[in-house]
Amino acid sequence: xxxxxxxxxxxxxxxxxxxxxxxxxxxxxxxxxxxxxxxxxxxxxxxxxxxxxxxxxxxxxxxxxxxxxxxxxxxxxxxxxxxxxxxxxxxxxxxxxxxxxxxxxxxxxxxxxxxxxxxxxxxxxxxxxxxxxxxxxxxxxxxxxxxxxxxxxx
Length: 154
Known about the structure:
- By secondary structure, the chain is mainly α.
- Helices cover 80% and strands 0% of the residues.
- α5 packs across α8 (134-151).
- The N and C termini lie far apart (32 Å).
């Protein structure tokens, strides 16, 4: 096996783990948003509920929890960016999952500088394909690209 192929094969599980972490963060945020429960309560019930039965490693739990907690505590900074980029859309009228995916991505733009913007956007589009609709994929892509440009993220 070449060094390049070896590097690719060892990088893949990390990428998949981070994707699973983002999926888990969206699920936690959905419980927080729809259930109106405080994030510490969401964390407790989420990790003792059905998700705990899955084979989720500690690193994945920490990553997902950090993202969900970060988003929930940064709404005042994140939502105005969404409103600005999604012209003619009131945030409360957006599909709940689309709003959560946008919030998660913008949180990563702001607080995960080591993750390239294109990776954040691609991951968000995959989340939209999983949790939402084709129209949502286009909408999320447009909003995130506008926010990325505003923030000067590459």
